[in-house]
Amino acid sequence: VQRINYLFTQELQEDQAGGIFLIRTTSPSAVAPLLETLGSIEGIVRVVSASNPQSTLSLSTPVRIGLLIGLAVSAVASMLAARHGFRELLRSFSEEIQLMHLSGTAERMIQTPIIALGILCGLVASLLLIVAVYLFPFLPSRL
C-alpha cells in the first residue's frame, strides 16, 4: 500500500453518512488481494476498485509547515496588536483613571470596567469570526 486517505462521505456525496478509505496500491497487481482481504473484514460494508482515483485536495508537507508557521506568526502578531491596542486604550483614559485614583476610588472599581470591556471585545470578535466561518462556504466562487 502506497497511501491511505480517510474521507467523510459528505465530502463526495452529501446525502450519505459514514466514511471512505481511499487506498492507493504500489502496483496494480496488489489490488485484487487487497480487495479480497478488505472484503473479508467484518464491519466493512463495501469494497470498490476504481482505476481512476478521484482527485482529492492534498497539501505537501512544506506547504503544511508553512501554513502552520503562518498560523503561529499571525497568532503572535494578533497578541502583540491586542497588547498595543489595550495599552493605547489605557493611555487615552489615563487622566480619568488618575482622577479616579485621586478621588479615592478603589482599585477594583477601576479595573472591573476595563476587564469587562476587554471580555466584551473578545466576545464580539469571536462572534464575528464564527459568523465569517459559517458564511464562507456560501460566498460565490467568482470572488
Largest sheet: 2 strands, antiparallel
What number of structural domains do the residues give? 2
The pLDDT mean sits at 82
Morphology call: elongated
The number of strands is 2
Which class best fits the helix and strand makeup?
Answer: mainly alpha
Euclidean distance between termini CA atoms: 40 Å
Low-confidence parts = none
Organism: marine sediment metagenome
Transmembrane segments: 114-136
Protein name: ABC3 transporter permease protein domain-containing protein
Keywords: Membrane, Transmembrane, Transmembrane helix
Describe this protein's structure.
- The protein has 143 residues and is mainly alpha-helical.
- The chain has 2 domains: 1-58; 61-138, no CATH class.
- 55% of the residues lie in helices and 8% in strands.
- It has 4 helices and 2 strands, in the order ββαααα.
- Strands 1-2 form a two-stranded antiparallel sheet.
- The longest helix is centred in the middle third of the chain and has 32 residues, at 61-92.
- The chain is elongated and about 85 Å long.
- 0% of the residues are buried.
- The model has no long low-confidence stretch (mean pLDDT 82).
In short:
The chain has 143 residues and is mainly α. The protein is built from four helices and two strands; from the N terminus they run ββαααα. The longest helix is centred in the middle third of the chain and has 32 residues, at 61-92.
What layout of secondary structure does this protein have?
Elements: E1 3-8, E2 19-24, H1 31-39, H2 61-92, H3 94-102, H4 107-135
Antiparallel strand pairs: 1-2
